# Entry
Amino acid sequence: MEGPAVTECERLEELLAAAAVAVESESPDARAEASRALLAFQRRTADTVLARLAGAAVGALAHSIGDRAGVLDVLARCRARRARRCAGP
Amino acid sequence: MRINALWAFAVVVAWLAGCAARVQDVRPFAGATEALDAAVAAAYEGTFDAVARAERLTAEVADAGADEDDRWHRLEGLSGSTRRYLAALRGARAAALESMRDHAASLVAAADRGRARIERADATRASLVGFVAAAGALGPPGAGVVGEAVGAFIAAAGEASAALAAHGANADLRRRVEAHAHAVARLADLLDRDLLVLDGQLVLLGDAIESALLERDGAGLAALEGSVRGWRNAEGAGLAAAMGGPDTPGRGERLRAYAHADEALARVSRRRQALDAEVDARRREIGLALAVVRAGRRTVTAWRRAHDDVRAALAQRTTVSLDGLTLALGELRRRLDRLERLSDQWRVPP
# Structure
């Protein structure tokens, strides 16, 4: 399977990092902004694995009110998975 | 001294008779409290529906394509946390709202008691005035004039008695309203903050629902479309030649492949349209739930103001203007009606 573009890999890493900061900040606006950006990425990217990871992050953000640690855990695993996907075959 | 006492009594009677024998109307505030209760319940209901919708979609996605990660399983755990958090918040506020309904009911009961006292005073005055008038008409010459004067005094005293009853009732209301002023303000702040939380939560749940739909119904569409178009572009010149050219070997296969490519693109287009329609429907659903939450916030503001207005009116012996409250409640009613009409269509089955 062909790997994703470097720019997409970098962009998703930025978005996941920003999402983690938003969850830590407990700011509803920051969370909404992070969620919107990840959703836009999911819509746009041609790489299905990166799209799923962005989707997982969006899904997790929607529950940051109930289990902040759990959401941060999902985001961390998304970042690790992104790193594996972007490291190439 | 006796004259002074009588004069003082007459002055008090005249002052009281001049006061409006009217108990402050607190029923609109009681109605607003009921509406507030309904608004908060509807806001939570809409959010719980959205949580259920997101949970169901993520489960569908998980069934369709569980992969290398256990993220969906983990997200289901997160949904449970969200539901528990919201349920705990709702439970805490429900108890506070219950106490506010009790407060409103006690105000209505106190006002009703005051009105009943006024009615009794009015009935007594009417019967006494009637008796004096009848006695004057049957008495010796001059008795009618005296009777008239006595009747007028009894009427004034009766009005004073009614005003006194209203004054007592309003004083009772004022004590109750003052005692609850801090609790009302505090609860209004908390409810407003809660509804703001629900607002943010609904926005995020809307994104999560859209994201799950994209993954369930839209995953691979762009890649498929790109691949088919890429093939057609690469084959473009050959295909055009095959379509218009002579019946050479392989021409039929190329034309069939071309037709299959067209069909594939048409399928992608139909799936994309269906996905867009589904996403639009879910956005409308979330939009409506958000509108209910936002109308709920305005109801909180109007409810708090209604209590403040009753408090001020009782202190200043004026009447309450409920225009703002009526507007807010009207808007809330419309939102709730709309939600109710569409809820059957959108409700996530258990």
